[in-house]
Write a structure and sequence with these properties.
Shape: globular
Radius of gyration: 12 Å
Order of helices and strands: HHHH
Number of helices: 4
Number of strands: 0
Helix content: over 70%
Strand content: under 5%
Largest sheet: none
Number of domains: 1
Structural class: mainly alpha
Distance between the termini: 17 Å
């Protein structure tokens, strides 16, 4: 099983819908590839019906992963 699929399954098991998990993983991939657009990300989160609390937790995870990636530690 790929890492992405494993993370997707963990997000769904944690209470996100499949659509929300896909949206978050797409945003994460875009950010890691240097294609992050804040306005676009905000729109995608709203379209996927994230609550403000869910969005805050996921964005915190995103920032933590990007910081680790930039430091050369890889995703955590």
């Amino acid at each position: 099983m790929t890492d992405t699929l494993r993370v997707h399954d963990r997000l769904v098991a944690g209470g996100l819908s499949a659509e929300q998990a896909r949206t978050f993983l797409r945003l994460l991939a875009d950010a890691e590839a240097g294609r992050f657009d804040r306005r676009n990300a905000h729109g995608q989160l709203l379209d996927a019906s994230f609550s403000p609390e869910q969005a805050a937790v996921l964005l915190g995870d995103l920032l933590q992963r990007l910081a680790a990636w930039r430091a050369g530690d890889g995703p955590r």
